[in-house]
Amino acid sequence: MKRAIFWLLTILVILGAWLTLPRGNSAIPSEYAIITPPTNFESPDAVAAGQAIFIANCVPCHGVFGNGQGTTKPTFGPQPADFTDRAKVDLRTPQYLFWRVSEGGQVEPFRSQGSIMPAWKYQLNEQQRWQVISFIRTFAR
Q1: Positive or negative, the Cα torsion across 109, 113, 117, 123?
Q2: 15, 69, 73, 131: least buried by Cβ within 10 Å?
Q3: Which region, left, alpha or beta, applies to residue 45 given φ > 0 means left and ψ of -120 to 50 means alpha?
Q4: DSSP per residue, the chain
Q5: How far is CA 127 from CA 6, 27, 46, 47, in A?
């Protein structure tokens, strides 16, 4: 009987901890959550421009195939995102991705996890950030 109670309590604690984890896009700051992507956000021209930006800036960490297997992967902290994982990509709204590209690893919870992703808002203008997002979403299709 004691063993059954122990396991029941253990399961409840694990379930409670799991339920408190942030889901999907819940952590997006309001200033990013309210942004509307441009109307031509996923046009062929935007995807092509995003591909050029990705190749020039993102391949070293995220890899040529967007699978997070670049040549300069960090040895600590979180590994670069795998954009080929359709289930994970589908969970992320364009606004979430815009926030992540814009702020990089400089914001919580990513900073405390040791993320070394740069904040691209200093190198890429808003249009370029949307273009690279339109391209990275193609990896999961």
Answers
A1: positive
A2: 15
A3: alpha
A4: -HHHHHHHHHHHHHHHHHHTS--TTTT--HHHHT----TTTTSHHHHHHHHHHHHHHTHHHH-TTSSS--TT--SSSPPPP-TT-HHHHHHS-HHHHHHHHHHTTSSTTTTTTT-----GGGTS-HHHHHHHHHHHGGGG-
A5: 55, 23, 9, 12
pTM of this prediction? 0.79
Type of residue numbered 91: L
Domain locations along the chain: 26-140
pLDDT of residue 19: 39
Side chain identity at residue 89, one-letter code: V
Two tokens, residue 111: 């900073």
Task: Please tell me the distance from the alpha carbon of residue 138 to that of residue 141, in angstroms, as a whole number.
Answer: 5
**Residues of the chain under the 70 pLDDT cut:** 4-26, 73
Neighbours of 65 (CB within 10 A): 13
Highest CATH level, class, for 26-140:
mainly alpha
